[in-house]
C-alpha cells in the first residue's frame, strides 16, 4: 500500500476515534463521579448502548435527563465538552453537590438547564450568559450563593428563569453601558427569585414596557426602598409577589393600570402612604396587603367592585369604620381583616358569596353582629367588644378561635375496589398495586384561597394524566393527596404517579415523567398560578444493583499502537476520574463530623438515616423560627422543617443540658434507624454537630390518637376506623417485639404515642424510653421503672422486670381508651378497674353502654364483645396470662373480619375524606405528645447498657 495512503488512513482513524469517543469519555467520567447511575450504564458507548437517561443524535449526546434517581456526587467540569448537549435535567437529586463548572458557558447548544432540587453550592458562573440558546433555566431549590450574574441579561431566548430558594445575595442586576442586565430579558415570562437574600432597591430600570413577563416572584428576600412605578408599565403581568421584604414608601398609583394581574402580594413590608386604590385591577383574584403601615382609611370601594376577587388579606393595614355589607357579595372565599380598627355592627347581608369560608375579624372594635343564619362557615370576632359581653362570650361560636385544619383530600378509586397491597406498594386509583413515583407540587400563587373545595384537585387530575399520556409515557393513573398551605402561602400537594402495565417504572419512565414536570410541559390552568415539582428519589427499580465503576470496558477491538496508546490515556483518565470520585465520596461521608475523640465508638451503624448538618437544619426550619416551633418538653424543642425534597419533618432538638454523651446518642440513633415499618414512625436522620443533638422524624400530619379521641383534631373516629387504628398500632408494636433486630420493648405505649397519618393509619412513635433486648437478656431486662401512669404494667412496677408483656398491658389500656375515649385515670377512676366492675357478660354489650364513647354508641358495634375480651386479657395482672402482640394482632384481624372489614386494605375511603374540616385542631406536636416529656411521662433517655 502507498505509504501516504497509510498515513492518511491512520490520521483518519484517529480522527474518527477521537470524535466518536469524545462524548463517551465524558459520560464515563460522569459514571465514575456519580453514585446510583442507571444499571445499564455499562460498556463504552453510551449512544449505541442506549444508556438510560441519555439521548443521542448519531454519536453525540444531546440530552441528559436523570431526575429523582438519588444521583450523588459533583458535576464534573468535563461535562462542558458535550458540545451538542441541548437538555440537562438533573432535578430532584439532593445528593448532587459542589459548584457548577466555571466554563458551563461552553455548552453552546444548551436550551434547558434544569437543576432544581439538588444541593449545588457556590456562585452561578458568569459564563452562564454565553448559553444564548437557553430557554429554560431552573436553578431553584439549591444552595447557590453570591450574586445573580448580570450576564443572564444576554439570554434573549430565555422563557423561564427560576432562581428561587437559594442563598443569593446582592442586588437585581440591570444593564449599564458596560454590562447587560435583566431588563433586557424581553422574552422571559417568569422571573422567580423568591426565598433568597437579595437586597437593595428593586431597580426602576428593571421594568419597562418592552417586557412580556407574566410572573414576578420576589417574595421573602431583603429588598428595600420603594416599589418602582415602572412596574405599572409592564402590562403583561399576571402574578406579582413582593411580600416579605423590607419595602417602604407608598404603593405607586399606576399599579392600578395592571388590569391583567390576578394575584398581588405586597404583605409583610413597611409600606406607607395612602391605602392603594386598585379599582383598575379588574382581573384581581387574590390580594394580600397585610402588615404594612398605610395611612388610616375606610374600607375602599374597590373591595366590593372587583368582579373576581376570591381573597382579601388585609391584616393590620389601618382600616377603620364600618364594614359595608356589599363587601361580601362578590366571589369571596376568604376575608381576613384582622387587627384593624373596624367598628360598628357587622352585617353579612343576605347576598353574601356562597363560597365564603372564612371571615376573620379578630382584634377590631366591632360591637354588634346581625346574625345571618345561613352563614355557617368560619367567623371570628375574638378580641372585639362584642365578645367582651358576658353571655355572648361564652355562648357564641364566633367568640372562640377554631383553627382550620388542612382538608383530608386524596384521590379516590375509579369505580373499583381498592385491593390490599404488599409492604411498599400502593393501590392506584385503578386499584392496581404498584410502586408510584411520588413528589411534591408547590403552587406558588393560586387565585383561590379555599383549598377545602375538592374540585381544585379533581379538575387537576385528568389534566396531569393527559400531560403524561400525550407524551407517550407509561402512566396508568395519578393521585393527589395531602393538600396544605405552607408558611410561604404556597399550595403544597403530594403527587403519586402510577406506572402502566407493570408495578414499577424503569429508568426511562422516571426520566420522562420527571421531565414533563421539571420542564413545565404540564401546564395547569391559570388559576393555579406558577408551580414547581420536587420529586422524591425513586427506590423501586427492578433488581436495582449497583453499576460497576471499575474502569472502562471497551467493546471494540481495533488494531494499531496509536489506538492502544489512546486507550491507555482513556484508561488513565478513567482512573483519575475514579480517584476524584473517591475523593468526593470522602468529602460526602455522612459521618465525617462524627467526633471520634469522644470515645463514641466509631461510626454509627445506620440504615437509611441521614446525617444533617446544623446549617442545613437551620435552613429547613427558617433558622429554628418561632412559627416552626411545634412543641416542647423537658428534652428541648420540636420544630417543623421542610427538606428540599418537600418532605415535612419533625426535628427534635435537645436543649443545652439535656444532651447525652456521644455514645448514648449514637446508641439511640442506631436503634431508631433500624426500625422500618409502616406502622412505626421512622427516623429520617440526625444532627450531631456544634454541640447539637437533633433527631429528625417523618412528620405525621393528623396528630395523636389521643387528640382524635378527645375531639381536638375534629377527626371523627367511628367503630370501623377504631378497629383499623387498633390493628395498625398492634402491628407496629408486634414489629418492635418480633421483627426488629434486636427486639425492642417500647416501654411507653399510650394513645399519645400513637400518631395518625393523612390516611389515618396508626404509627407508633417515641422510642425515647425504648429498650433493646440483647441475647443475654433472655426475655426480661431489669431497669428502673419508667413509663406513664395509667398505662404502667403493675407487675413491672413491682418487680422492675421489664418484658414484652409490659407493652401488652399498656396496649390493653389503649384498647380500653378506644372504647371509652377517656383518660386511663380520670376523676380518680382507673379505667381498668371500672371496666372490670361494670362488666356483665350476660348482658347486651356486656352492660357497658354507660362508659363507651358516645361517638360510637350510635354505630353498629360488630365484634364489640370480642374486642372487650381481648382488651381485658391484655390487662391481666400476671404477664404470663396476657397474650403476645402477635396474638393481639390476629384477634383484631378476626374482629375486623366479623365486622366485614378487610384487615389488609388501605384505610381512609375517600367518601369519608371531608369531615374534620374547620373544627378545632391542635398540632400533634404540642403539649403532651410524641416528643413531650412533661407530666407523668418521665424524662427520656436511652439507657446505655
Ligand atoms: C423598547 O424597544 C424599543 C424597540 O426595540 C427600543 O427602541 C426601546 O429603547 C426599548 N425601550 C426600553 C425602555 O428598553
Ligand atoms: C380609585 O381609582 C379610580 C380610577 O381607577 C377612580 O375612579 C376612583 O375615584 C379612585 N378612588 C379613590 C377613593 O381615589
Ligand atoms: C367608627 O370609626 C370611625 C372612624 O374612626 C368613627 O368616625 C365613627 O364614629 C366610629 N363609629 C362608631 C359607631 O363608633
Ligand atoms: C421501560 O419501560 C417502558 C414502558 O413501560 C418500555 O417500553 C421499555 O421497553 C422499558 N425499557 C427498558 C430498557 O426496559
Ligand atoms: C419543554 O417545555 C416547553 C413548554 O414549556 C415546550 O415547548 C418544550 O417543547 C419542552 N421541551 C421539550 C424538549 O420537550
Question: Would you kindly provide a written description of the structure presented here, covering whatever features stand out?
Answer:
- 21% of the residues lie in helices and 19% in strands.
- It is globular, with a radius of gyration of 31 Å.
- The strands form twelve sheets. The chain has a 15-stranded mixed sheet. It has a six-stranded mixed sheet with strand order 34-38-39-37-36-35, sandwiched between helices.
- It folds into five domains: 189 residues, Ribonuclease Inhibitor (Leucine-rich repeat, LRR (right-handed beta-alpha superhelix), Alpha-Beta Horseshoe); 108 residues, Leucine-rich repeat, LRR (right-handed beta-alpha superhelix), CATH 3.80.10.10; 110 residues, Alpha-Beta Plaits; 89 residues, Phosphorylase Kinase, domain 1 (2-Layer Sandwich); 210 residues, Transferase(Phosphotransferase) domain 1 (Transferase(Phosphotransferase), domain 1), CATH 1.10.510.10.
- It has 17 helices and 47 strands.
- One 2-acetamido-2-deoxy-beta-D-glucopyranose binds next to loops.
Relative strand content: 15-25%
What's the CATH topology name of the largest domain?
A: Transferase(Phosphotransferase), domain 1
CATH architecture name of the largest domain: Orthogonal Bundle
Radius of gyration: 31 Å
The CATH homologous superfamily of the largest domain: Transferase(Phosphotransferase) domain 1
Shape: globular
Amino acid at each position: 500500500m502507498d505509504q501516504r495512503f497509510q498515513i492518511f488512513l491512520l490520521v483518519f482513524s484517529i480522527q474518527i476515534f477521537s470524535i466518536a469517543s469524545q462524548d463517551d469519555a465524558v459520560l464515563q467520567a460522569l459514571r465514575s463521579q456519580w453514585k446510583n447511575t442507571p444499571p445499564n450504564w455499562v460498556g463504552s458507548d453510551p449512544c449505541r448502548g442506549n444508556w438510560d437517561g441519555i439521548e443521542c443524535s448519531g454519536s453525540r449526546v444531546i440530552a441528559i435527563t436523570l431526575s429523582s434517581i438519588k444521583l450523588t456526587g459533583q458535576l464534573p467540569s468535563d461535562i462542558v465538552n458535550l458540545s451538542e448537549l441541548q437538555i440537562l435535567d438533573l432535578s430532584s437529586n439532593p445528593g448532587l453537590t459542589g459548584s457548577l463548572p466555571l466554563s458551563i458557558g461552553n455548552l453552546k447548544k444548551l436550551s434547558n438547564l434544569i437543576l432544581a432540587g439538588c444541593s449545588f453550592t457556590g456562585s452561578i458562573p458568569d459564563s452562564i450568559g454565553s448559553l444564548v440558546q437557553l430557554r429554560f433555566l431552573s436553578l431553584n431549590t439549591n444552595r447557590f450563593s453570591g450574586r445573580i450574574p448580570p450576564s443572564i441579561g444576554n439570554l434573549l431566548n430565555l422563557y423561564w428563569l427560576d432562581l428561587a430558594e437559594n442563598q443569593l445575595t446582592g442586588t437585581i442586576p440591570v444593564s449599564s453601558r458596560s454590562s447587560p442586565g435583566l431588563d433586557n430579558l424581553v422574552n422571559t415570562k417568569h422571573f422567580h427569585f423568591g426565598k433568597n437574600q437579595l437586597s437593595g432597591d428593586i431597580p426602576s430600570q428593571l421594568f419597562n414596557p418592552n417586557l412580556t413577563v407574566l410572573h414576578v416572584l420576589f417574595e421573602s428576600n431583603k429588598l428595600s426602598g420603594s416599589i418602582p412605578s415602572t412596574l405599572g408599565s409592564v402590562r403583561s403581568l399576571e402574578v406579582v409577589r413582593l411580600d416579605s421584604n423590607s419595602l417602604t414608601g407608598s404603593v405607586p398609583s399606576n399599579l392600578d393600570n395592571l388590569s391583567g394581574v390576578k394575584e398581588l402580594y405586597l404583605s409583610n413590608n413597611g409600606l406607607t402612604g395612602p391605602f392603594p386604590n386598585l379599582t383598575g385591577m379588574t382581573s384581581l383574584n387574590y390580594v394580600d396587603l397585610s402588615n404594612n403601615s398605610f395611612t388610616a382609611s375606610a374600607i375602599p370601594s374597590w373591595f366590593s367592585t372587583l368582579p373576581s376577587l376570591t381573597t382579601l388579606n388585609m391584616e393590620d393595614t389601618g382600616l377603620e369604620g364600618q364594614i359595608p355589607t356589599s363587601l361580601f357579595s362578590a366571589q369571596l372565599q376568604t376575608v381576613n381583616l384582622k387587627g384593624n380598627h373596624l367598628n360598628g355592627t357587622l352585617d353579612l347581608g343576605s347576598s353574601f358569596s356562597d363560597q365564603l369560608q372564612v371571615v376573620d375579624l379578630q382584634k377590631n372594635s366591632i360591637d354588634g353582629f346581625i346574625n345571618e343564619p345561613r352563614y355557617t362557615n368560619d367567623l371570628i370576632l375574638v378580641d372585639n367588644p362584642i365578645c367582651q359581653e358576658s353571655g355572648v362570650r361564652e355562648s357564641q361560636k364566633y367568640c372562640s378561635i377554631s383553627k382550620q385544619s388542612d382538608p383530608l383530600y386524596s384521590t379516590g378509586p375509579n369505580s373499583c375496589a381498592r385491593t390490599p397491597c404488599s409492604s411498599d406498594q400502593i393501590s392506584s386509583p385503578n386499584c392496581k398495586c404498584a410502586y408510584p413515583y411520588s413528589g411534591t407540587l408547590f403552587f406558588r400563587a393560586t387565585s383561590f384561597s379555599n383549598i377545602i373545595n375538592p374540585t381544585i384537585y379533581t379538575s387537576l387530575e385528568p389534566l396531569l394524566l393527559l400531560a403524561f399520556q400525550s407524551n407517550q409515557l407509561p402512566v396508568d393513573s395519578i393521585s393527589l393527596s395531602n393538600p396544605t398551605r405552607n408558611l410561604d402561602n404556597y399550595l403544597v400537594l403530594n403527587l403519586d404517579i402510577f406506572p402502566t402495565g407493570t408495578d414499577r417504572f424503569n429508568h426511562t419512565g422516571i426520566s420522562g415523567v420527571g421531565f414533563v414536570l421539571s420542564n413545565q410541559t404540564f401546564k395547569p390552568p391559570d388559576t393555579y398560578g406558577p408551580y414547581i415539582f420536587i420529586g422524591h428519589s425513586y427506590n423501586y427499580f427492578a433488581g436495582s444493583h449497583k453499576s460497576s465503576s471499575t474502569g472502562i470496558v471497551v467493546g471494540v477491538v481495533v488494531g494499531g499502537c496509536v489506538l492502544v496508546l489512546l486507550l491507555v490515556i482513556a484508561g488513565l483518565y478513567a482512573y483519575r476520574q475514579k480517584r476524584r470520585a473517591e475523593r468526593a465520596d470522602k468529602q460526602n461521608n455522612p459521618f465525617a463530623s462524627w467526633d471520634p475523640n469522644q470515645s463514641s465508638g466509631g461510626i454509627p451503624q445506620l440504615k437509611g438515616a441521614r446525617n444533617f448538618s446544623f446549617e442545613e437544619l437551620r435552613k429547613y426550619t427558617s433558622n429554628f423560627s418561632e412559627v416552626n416551633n411545634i412543641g416542647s418538653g423537658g428534652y428541648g424543642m420540636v420544630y417543623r422543617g421542610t427538606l428540599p425534597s418537600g418532605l415535612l419533618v419533625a426535628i427534635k432538638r435537645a436543649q443545652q443540658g439535656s444532651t447525652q454523651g456521644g455514645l448514648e446518642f449514637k446508641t439511640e440513633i442506631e436503634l431508631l434507624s433500624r426500625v422500618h415499618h409502616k406502622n412505626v414512625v421512622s427516623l429520617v436522620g440526625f444532627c450531631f454537630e456544634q454541640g447539637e443533638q437533633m433527631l429528625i422524624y417523618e412528620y405525621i400530619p393528623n396528630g395523636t390518637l389521643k387528640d382524635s379521641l378527645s375531639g381536638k383534631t375534629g377527626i371523627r373516629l367511628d367503630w370501623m376506623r377504631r378497629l383499623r387504628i387498633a390493628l395498625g398500632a398492634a402491628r407496629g408494636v408486634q414489629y418492635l417485639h418480633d421483627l426488629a433486630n434486636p427486639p425492642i420493648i417500647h416501654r411507653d405505649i399510650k394513645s399519645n404515642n400513637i400518631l395518625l397519618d393523612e390516611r389515618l393509619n396508626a404509627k407508633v412513635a417515641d422510642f425515647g424510653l425504648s429498650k433493646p433486648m440483647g441475647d443475654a437478656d433472655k426475655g426480661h431486662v431489669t431497669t428502673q421503672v419508667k413509663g406513664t401512669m395509667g398505662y404502667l404494667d403493675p407487675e413491672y412496677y413491682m418487680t422492675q422486670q421489664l418484658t414484652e408483656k409490659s407493652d401488652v398491658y399498656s396496649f390493653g389500656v389503649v384498647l380500653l381508651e378506644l372504647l371509652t375515649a377517656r383518660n386511663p385515670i380520670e376523676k380518680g377512676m382507673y379505667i381498668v378497674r371500672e371496666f372490670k366492675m361494670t362488666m356483665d357478660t350476660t348482658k347486651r354489650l356486656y352492660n357497658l353502654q354507660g362508659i363507651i364513647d358516645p361517638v360510637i354508641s350510635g354505630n353498629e358495634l360488630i365484634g364489640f364483645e370480642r374486642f372487650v375480651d381481648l382488651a381485658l386479657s391484655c390487662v391481666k395482672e400476671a404477664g404470663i396470662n396476657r397474650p403476645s402482640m402477635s396474638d393481639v394482632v390476629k384477634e383484631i384481624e378476626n374482629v375486623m373480619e366479623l365486622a366485614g372489614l378487610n384487615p389488609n386494605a388501605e384505610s381512609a375511603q375517600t367518601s369519608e375524606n371531608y369531615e374534620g374540616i374547620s373544627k378545632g385542631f391542635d398540632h400533634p406536636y404540642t403539649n403532651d405528645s410524641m416528643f413531650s416529656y412533661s407530666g407523668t411521662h418521665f424524662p427520656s433517655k436511652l439507657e446505655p447498657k
